[in-house]
């Protein structure tokens, strides 16, 4: 039915594991698939509606000009009809379409340090206003995530990550919790644990006439959004490093620090950047086990994952244990 609806609208249909996205000239309709992955549950119409509404509310925090609202889809005489509530069978997030040329991932060669400093200002301001979620700053909460990463990547040792790098990163990570345990609690007390974006990556940053827009935050699982503000902000600088834009990453970090005056910035930044690079290495490695991915794509994924793990190793070497 979604394919048919896209054809009727004259739009392009793009699929992800969790959504159907219909791209029109001016707007986009995003329909959630009826799936349940444990960490993400869209299995019922009620849950899909709830997550559509949540997606709009959360994303308007950083991208108010793009998220129009949630619209019903009704089935009438065997056809799906958008923005009709007479016989609702689905819901869609309606968005203004962001031109491809506005997205950071498509303009890495032309973006300036001044542009990237504007992004840092938006992120810093957002973090200062975001809801506090102090309990998610406990070291054991973060350690649960890093332990999970190491457990899930053991099978890729010798494939996308060397045994030496795996053990080095794991050792530095676990020692960091021991050495800096008190700082985790200090950051909780000072309000540095917030309801963030969760996925500030180069393909989720756009430069619009109205200003910097950071879209597509994580709505399906609060745990993936809640955390230390530095963990949220540094995803972008890690990606800029990965794509060889170290000067842009440095400008972004310098501007964020200048605004926030975060006293633990130098201590926690390498730790969180290591975490972010490792997560991306892990997720990219998962593609090697996907039967729907071609051998050519698997070869590319293997190379990319290896580079991400090497970047994680570089950050791990910068982690301070004094």
Q: Any overview of this molecule?
A:
- The chain has 322 residues and is α+β, with helices and mostly antiparallel strands.
- It has two domains: 2-97, Phosphorylase Kinase, domain 1; 104-318, Aminoglycoside 3'-phosphotransferase, Chain: A, domain 2.
- It is 48% helix and 16% strand.
- The strands form three sheets. Strands 1-2-3-6-4-5 form a six-stranded antiparallel sheet, with helices on both faces. A two-stranded antiparallel sheet has the order 7-10.
Fold blueprint:
Blueprint: H1 2-9, E1 12-15, E2 19-23, E3 27-32, H2 45-59, E4 67-76, E5 79-82, E6 88-96, H3 113-129, H4 139-153, H5 163-179, H6 181-189, E7 193-195, E8 205-208, E9 211-214, E10 226-228, H7 229-242, H8 246-260, H9 265-286, H10 295-318
Antiparallel strand pairs: 1-2, 2-3, 3-6, 4-5, 4-6, 7-10, 8-9
Helix pairs in contact: 3-8, 4-5, 4-9, 5-10, 7-8, 7-9, 9-10
